[in-house]
Amino acid sequence: MFGRRRKQEKWILLAPAILVLALITLIPLANTFWLSFTDTRISAIPSPVRFIGLENYIYALTDPEFREALYRTLYFTIVSVGLEGILGVAVAVLLNQKFRGHLILRALIILPWAVPTIVNAVAWRLIYHPDYGALNSLLFQLGLISDYRSWIGDPATAMNMVILADVWKNFPLVAYVALAALQTVPADLNKAAAIEGAGPWKRFWSITLPWIMGPLMVVMVLRTIEAFRVFDIIYVMTGGGPADSTKTASFYVYQEYFNYLRSGSGASYAVLVAGISAVLILFYYSSAKRQATGATA
Amino acid sequence: MRRTMLQSVFLYSCVVALALFTIAPLLWLVTMSISAPTDLTEVPLRWIPSEFDFSRYGALLNIDGGSGERFLSALRNSILTAGGATVIALMLAIPAAYSFSRRGASMVLLFAFLATIMMPPITYILPLYSTFSAFGMLNKTTTLIIVYTAMLLPFATWLMKANIDVLPVEVEQAAFMEGASTSYTIRTVVLPLALPAIAATAMLSFLVAWDEFFYALIFTNDLSAKTLPVAIADFSAGRVTDYGVIASVGVMATLPPAILAICFQKFIVSGLVAGSVKG
Amino acid sequence: MPENQILSVESLQKTYGDVHVLKDINVAMEPGEFLVLVGPSGCGKSTLLSCISGLTEVSSGTIRIAGRDCTHMEPANRDIAMVFQSYALFPNMSVERNIGFGLEVRKVAEAEKKAKVSEVADLLKIEHLLQRRPAELSGGQRQRVAMGRALVRDPKLFLFDEPLSNLDAKLRVTMRTEIKRIHQATGASIVYVTHDQIEAMTLATRIVVMKDGVVQQIGTPHEIYNKPVNAFVADFMGAPSMNLMKGKATPEEGHIRLEIPTPQGRSVSLIDRKTPSQSFRNGPQDVLIGLRPEAMTDQKLSNGSALQSAECLLEVVEPAGADTYAVIHLGETEAIARLSADAPVQAGEMSSITFDLSKVSYFDISSGNRL
Amino acid sequence: MKAINKLILGSAIATLAMSSTALADTTLNALFMSQAAYSEDDIKSMTAQFEAANPGVKVSLEFVPYEALHDKIVAAAGAGEDGYDVVLYDVIWPAEFATRGFLMDVTDRIPADYTDKIFDGAWTTVEYGGKRYGMPWILDTKYLFYNTEILDKAGISAPPKTWGELAEQARQIKAKGVLEYPLVWSWSQSEAMICDFTTLTAANNGAFFEEGQPAFRQGGARDAVSFMKATLDEGLTNPASREYFEEDVRRVFSNGEAAFALNWTYMNALANDPAESKVAGKVKVAPAPGVDGKSTASSVNGSMGLGIPSNSPHADEAWAYIAFLTQKDIQDNYAKLSLPIWKASYSEPKVMEGQEDLIAAAKESISVMYPRPLVPSYTEVSDILQKNIHEVLLDQTGVDEALEAAAARVKRIR
User: Fold this and answer.
1) Helix axes B265-276, B195-211, angle to 10 degrees
2) Contact flag for C and A (3+ C-beta pairs < 8 Å)
3) Measured distance CA(A97)–CA(A76) in Å, rounded
4) Whether A214 contacts A288, CB under 8 Å
5) Residue A176 resides in a domain
């Protein structure tokens, strides 16, 4: 029966991927989930594992500082992914115009994306340096500031400065996807709308944007997943400071595991981060579906 | 359509602003890397170096020097690790994606794949560390390749699935009608059609692997396996009075992916978009 | 079950969840036949073809190809070939490799493969295109390559899935002739799906008309055209389609009296000089009277028996080159009459129309079945 | 066992040229850090000497940033035999590591006569619950570095003896326009800040915990935070200090942009090195000041020890290596970036040469070295203090509210 063979094939094709994922991530994932309900600690001295139900979750969620970290993470995610989206689309629209040197600019735009996160973090840390940073010097020489100031040392600006660095690195990907999608917008559609009397803004909102929304959503989902578990860039740029103003949820996971050696509790923080991320993605996904059907309808 | 003068001015100001925003930080990184150390601690800064000093690059590219050995071995490890993981991840992701797209494998499973990358990576480090040490596999490029493969797989599978979804299914049916097996069809029909998608997925995967820091930091111990991000962290954590050194390492670490990105520019675009039409 | 049947589909059912796509399909076909599955979109004809090809698994029933039960066989093992609507050429391969793909898969020796490919290319007149990629071909050329790929393996049965629907009108006619020529040259057994009844009429040796997953009628083009089993087939086959006028049929001695109402209040009264069949024994009844447009003409050939004339109001007159069509409101419908090209008629005028009652069909007014 | 110990120690003490047959062919994995104290080159050269003296033993060295040191030790704790054999660890970790069983108890391996030969402050680095979990190696504390040229310009003849005097001198320097910000510290949200805070707390006779309860809400600890905040408010402290680490302090000070700086031993050599510093030759070092009526000097125990992870299969060889690195001769030879743990070293000419004022300051500082809280949850306590003190320094909250909040949070620790 070839239906059964198809079914076998389905699993044969999946098997290698599932095997690798199971060994490297799925089993640890399941284990982490289990650990999050226990009081396990990292220790070389064996001690019995105690099941403590939701205690870890309650501890985490009743902690105002962790809740703040979640809001902060959400802020980072929404602002940086949002800016990447807006900037990316704007840049794509710009690059979609014909002007002298547009091909060169198109090639240059991708460069920030190629800069490794660690290099990006280190480079921007140098740019933001309170004494010798290029940003201070530039603004000073332009007369925009009268004194050198602290950028990532000031809680009022630190998170936004990290976001700027993150947006700088990641907007090219969004711009590239948006640009490619823009090129698939049928010219007839815009012409028809123009004849109906729609102005450029109206055309952008009601035709262009819905058209490119599908592809845009895929890259936004990717960026959201990455942004919500942001760690490296903050670890290198600010270490969570000043005064915890850049300490994201991933930092709590890191602290619980590596600094406080409470793997049970750390697991619950991790599950919370992944859970919220999953909710975000599902929300995205369903709205992307709606957008996509709206665009084709 | 002709542009009015005002529109042209606006357009070109946007172009210049964008170019500056994109290039300025990079240009500054390059400038730092060839400036004399004293130029970099002037207040306000000296934007154009008093002399062009390429000695740091010389040092980085000299295998016999301390920092050259550190940098070059990290470069080699990074290329092997990111390249190896990308190749293996694609080799696993393509059949899996085909199964999701054409053999009706459950989307719940795909979401389970994706869930593994939503977990903060820190979660996996300790269990993996003990597992790999039990097999004596710490501080090995192979180990990082395996870990990165697992890390890249979910998104690569998703992207490839979305791309295979939009390929014309009749072409594959035609191949089946002609008597080709599934694996033969994937190899001779699906893969050539999905080439842009594969290139885009490969590029994206390569960059993610090239970027990875925390696993590499914990899993590697010495020159034989340390990757560039770890080496950069080492360079900038030690006693550094000369920011130019960090800048030059940064520039060098950016070059390989930058070259790849520019070469594969076209593919990246079409591959990402073809796949995203269906989401 | 005669052993020499090339295809036999028995009690085939296909359901997708609650949706019953194919309902108890029974079709048989002799070698060398050109069987056309025709029907409006959604009638299940493509699903039926897909079941025959093996790309879709059936829910129940049996499919035999050349006497072999193929119901649950892989497509590859059924010894069939298929031409897809989109041609489904392999874009990354040359025309030569496209055509030879099936042989390549079967590991046929290089020389033999080359010979067969060039033989088929010769038949299809595409030898000069062998080194090109599908993207460099025109629609008609792609169509030929797709057929070449099917022909080269010399399978027992060919399946064509709306192969001409992507071509422009003119090319469609040329390719239609081409397909017919190839069929005649090779004597291949072909199952052909189309929604275009003209294609069906011109190509088929036998036609299967389908609607809503049910076979309506199987027959030669002549049978289907002249003796449609129900109002649906009558309406679907032929362009312009058969006029189905409501009227009253009264069986009388040796003939049937027909009264077809007009909006003007009068009735057109006709006599069908055939002995009324059993269906008419219950006395006068309302029926659908089916007459093809060509059975309603301006020719003054009234012979009093089969050909009878009546004055009708021509509402619209449409010259169509070879003919002129006139719309006449008859029996609560807009009937179309086919007049000669130079008929001196004008819209809004009364004119004498000749009805050819030798071609008349009757259908039950509620069930639509032929009486 | 005893015999082997003696043999190993013998081989270690006898320095070079003596081969030891007691050690099997092994490769030791050793973890060090790449900042502060001994440089990588120093450690490599010491290790080369060790390998030369012990032909069967190879040491594979790994250097990581300080920030990664703890993580790597923790990760390797679950590594079985593949982990490290020797690790460098900070004074603040033994309580935690001992409680978790990460380190071997080596009390019995240490010769009895060492106890008196090595500074008490050094011993606290490796002790917890009356047991020793390794040998102290880097004996370090924060000293007060000052720029004599700037002090001269401001007409100051003697360095400050108390923190009050230091603030007064800073005011003078600022008033005379010599420098905008005379003071620089490592007050980023990090352990570096806690070290400065501890120094100031020690000067004010403060305490972190009393009978297991947080005691930093009042007294000396509170005075320390108030002092830190006051110097910022007055504009004496470089406001960028709030994002500085030790290396930033060194750079600012070496550029002549600060009159006073608190930093570890290693800065002495580097600030006086013309290749690294613009103020070479104008740098003097003194113990961190005290507080009138409370102390004459202050210092924080910033030492580090070498220990053997409990999963090391090469404990004997590892111990030989540790014994070699911590012996007096070796330490005396590399005394420029990190000072020896041995009391006797401080009168050795080769140690004193060129850094007489450092040695003088060290003698005083080491004797008053103050530990950071010796609790197993130290890391978390420190994180809490870092955050809340940083909020004070950044003007986000008052001293009392911050310390109150910190205390409440410390009590919440599980």
Assistant:
1) 110
2) yes
3) 31
4) yes
5) yes
The helix (run of H) or strand (run of E) holding residue B169 is helix B169-177
| Closest CA in chain B for residue D36 | B239
Same domain, C63 and C193: yes
Which CATH number fits the domain that encloses residue A261? 1.10.3720.10
- What's the rounded Cα separation, in Å, for the pair A118 and B56? 19
pLDDT in tens, chain D (414 residues): 344 444 444 444 444 333 344 556 889 999 998 876 788 889 999 999 999 999 889 999 988 888 889 988 988 887 777 789 999 999 999 999 998 899 999 999 999 999 999 998 899 999 998 999 999 999 999 999 999 999 999 999 889 999 999 999 999 999 999 999 999 999 999 999 999 999 999 999 999 998 888 999 988 999 999 999 999 999 999 999 999 988 889 989 998 999 999 999 889 988 998 988 899 999 999 999 999 989 999 999 999 999 999 989 999 999 999 999 999 999 999 988 888 999 999 988 888 888 888 999 998 899 889 989 888 889 999 999 999 999 999 999 999 999 999 999 999 887
Give the range of the structural domain holding residue A249, as residue numbers without chain letter: 57-296
**Which token pair is C253?**
């001695």
Query: Could you tell me if residue A10 is inside a domain?
Result: no
Q: Is residue A142 part of a domain?
A: yes
Q: Tokens for D335, please give them.
A: 């005394």
Judged by CB atoms closer than 8 Å, whether chains meet at A152 and D243 is answered as yes
Among the candidates C236, C266, C300, a domain finishes at C236
Which structural domain, as residue segments, surrounds residue D306?
4-140+301-368
A292: left (phi over 0), alpha (psi -120 to 50) or beta: alpha
Three-state SS at B224:
coil
Q: Where in the sequence is the domain holding C279, given as residue range(s)?
A: 243-364
CA separation for the pair C172, C169 (Å, rounded): 5
* Residue C88 to residue B179, Cβ atoms within 8 A: no
Q: Looking up tokens 């990455």, which residue turns up?
A: A226
Which residues on A lie below 8 Å from B41 (Cβ)? 131-132
Q: Does C113 touch chain B (CB under 8 A)?
A: no
**Distinct helix (H) and strand (E) counts, chain A:** 15, 0
Chain A residues closer than 8 Å to B226 by CB = none
Do C218 and C267 fall into the same domain?
no
CATH number at residue C305: 2.40.50.140
Domain boundary among C189, C211, C236: C236
CB crowding C240-276: b at 16 or more within 10 Å, else e = bebbbbebbbebeeebbebbbbbeeeebbebbbeeeb
Contact (Cβ atoms closer than 8 angstroms) between residue D134 and residue D126: yes
User: Which residue intervals of C187-270 are DSSP H helices?
Assistant: 197-203, 221-226, 231-236
Q: Is residue B44 part of a domain?
A: no
Task: Read off the pTM.
Answer: 0.85
How many domains are there within chain C?
Answer: 2
